[in-house]
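Notes to self after the Tuesday call (sharing in case useful).
The group wants a holo model before anyone commits to mutagenesis around the pocket. I volunteered. Ligand is magnesium ion. Logging inputs and output together so the record is complete.
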Amino acid sequence: MNKITKQSFAIQFMGQHRPKQAVLFSILLRRTAANPSRKLEDMDMIEFRNVSKRYANGTVGLNNVNLKINEGEMVVIVGLSGAGKSTLLRTINKLHDTTSGEILIGGKSVTAARGRELRLIRRGIGMIFQSFNLVKRSTVLRNVLSGRVGYHSTLRTVFGLFPRHDIELALDALSRVNIREKAFSRADQLSGGQQQRVSIARALAQEAKIILADEPVASLDPLTTRQVMDDLKRINQELSITTIVNLHHIDLAREYATRIIGMRAGEIVFDGRPEEATDEAFAHIYGRSIFEAELLGAES
Amino acid sequence: MNSPAAPTPTPTPTPNQAPRPLPVPPGRYKRYAAWMVGIVLFVICCYQVEVTPIKLMNGIPEMGKLIGEMFPPDWSYFPTIWEPMIQTVQIAIMGTTLGAILAIPVALLCANNIVTAKAVTIPVRIILNLVRTIPDLLFASIFVAVFGIGPFAGMLALMFFSFGLIAKLTFEAIEAIDPGPIEAMTAVGANKIKIIAFGVVPQILPYFVSYLLYTFEVNVRAASVLGLVGAGGIGLLLDRSLGLFRYDRACIIILLTLAIVLVIDYASNVVRRKLL
Ligand SMILES: Nc1ncnc2c1ncn2[C@@H]1O[C@H](COP(=O)(O)OP(=O)(O)OP(=O)(O)O)[C@@H](O)[C@H]1O
Ligand SMILES: [Mg+2]
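Result:
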C-alpha cells in the first residue's frame, strides 16, 4: 500500500488538473495495487464461541451464542425487537464489547483485539446502518472515500489526499450501486434509498470481505427496499462478500438469504436454509404465529 | 429498477385515533408568582445601586450639553485616527484568529462524545470556565503590566477572550452533532483523529466559522476600548480626547468606529447566513 501513497491527488482537483505523466504513473502503480497480496484467508470465517453479552444495566444481549458463518454466505438474522440481533452484529466488529466467550474472524480473535489491530480488523468489515450514518454535508464521494481512511496515514487522510486508485475504487463502488452520477452531490440531497446505497458503496470502497447490515431497509419504502436488497445480494454473489443482514420482514429473509438465523432473548433458536424456515419455524422464533405485519407487503 | 413488479400495495396508515386531550395549561398562580418575584428583585436592585428616575432626569441636560459639544465633529482629526483605527481592526483579527486556533483542540477535549474520559473533560472545562470569567479589559490590563503598553497586550487579551468564547460555543455544538457518522467511522477502522476529521469536522465547520465571525464582531468593539488601559488601538486617542474635553474629536472617533463596526457586522452576518 505504501507504493500508491506516493502518488496523491487532492479530491477536489480530480479530473480537472491532472498532469499527463501522473496519470501514466498512477496506472503503473495501480497494476501493483490491483494484485496486492491481501490475505483473503484471514478474512473468511466468522466464529462465535460461547459468546455472552450482558449490558451494564443487566440486560442480557447475547446468551452463550455459538455460531459459524462461512465466507460468501448471505445470512439474514430475524427475531423480535429486543431479541439481540443488533447486539450480535455489533459484537462482530466490536462496536459492542462482549462479556464472555470469543469471536474469531479467520481464526483471529476480535474480542481480544485492541488499538491498531482492532482497527485493521474493522477495516475489513463494512457496516450498513438503518439511519445510513453518512455525513450529510459532505459529498457522496467523500462519504465513500471515508471508507478508505484505514488504508492510509492519518496526516494524509486528514488533508483528503486520497490516491487516484482510491478515487477510482470509490467511483467503481458507486457504479455498482448505480449512483455514480451522484458522486459530487451533497449526501443530504439524495433520497433515503440512494443514501443507503452510498453507505453500501462505502463498505465496498473499504474492500471489506464482510458486510454487516443492521436493518438496512427499515426506513425505506417497499420498492426501494428491494433495490437495496438486490444490491446487497448482487454484491454478495459477485464479490463473494460474506453478508449478515438484520431484517424484520420474513418474506425478504426467505427471498434473499442463503441462511436464516432466528434469535430470541439473546439465543439462537433457529438456524437453517430459507426452505426450512417455514411459517411454523418463524412462529417458533417469534414465540407466536406470524402476523401480516411481518410480511413486507403489509407493512409500511 | 429491473426487479419484477412486486405486489406491494401502498400501505395507508389507519387514521383511527381518538381525539387527543388538550394540554393542561400550567398553573396560573405560578406564573403570577414568577412575575412578582421578578419585579421585586428588579426594584431591590434599583434601590441598592441607587438607580432612580430622578437621577436620570437630572442627567439629561448634562447629556444634552455633551452632545452639543460633540457637534460639529472635528473632521480634521480624521487623518490622525485612521491609522489607529486600522490597528484596532488588526488587533481584533489577530486576536480572533489565534484564539480560534487555540480553541479547536480545547473544544474537542471538552466534548464528552469525543473524549469519553471524564478525567480529561472535567479539568479542561474548569480551566476553560476560569478563562471565561476574566473580562477582556482585565486581561488587557494584566498583559499591559506584563508586556508593556501597546497593541501586543491588546492582541493577547482578545486572543484569550476569543479562545474562551469560541471554545465554549464550539464544544457545545460538538456535543449536539449526529453521532451516526462517528459510529460509521469507528466501524470503518478509523483512529480518533480520522474519526474527528471525517465524522465531526464536516458537521461542525459551519458552526465554527459562524462563531468565529461572531467573536470577531465582538472583538472589533472590544478592541476599540482596549486603548483605555493602554493596550493599543483607537481607544488611546478616545481616552486622550475625552481627557482634554475635545468632545468634537471623540465624536469623530465614535462615528468612525460605528461605521467600521456596522460594515463588519453586516459582512459577517451575510456570510453566517450563507453558512447555516
Ligand atoms: N446500550 C444498551 N444498554 C442496555 N441494554 C441494551 C443496550 N442496547 C440494547 N440493549 C438491550 O439488549 C437487548 C437486545 O437488544 P438489540 O438491540 O440487540 O435487539 P434487536 O434484536 O436488534 O432489536 P430491534 O429489532 O428492535 O433492533 C434488548 O433487550 C435491549 O433492550
Ligand atoms: Mg436492532
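Two things stood out.
Chain B has ten helices and no strands.
Confidence is low (pLDDT under 50) at residues 1-15 of chain B.
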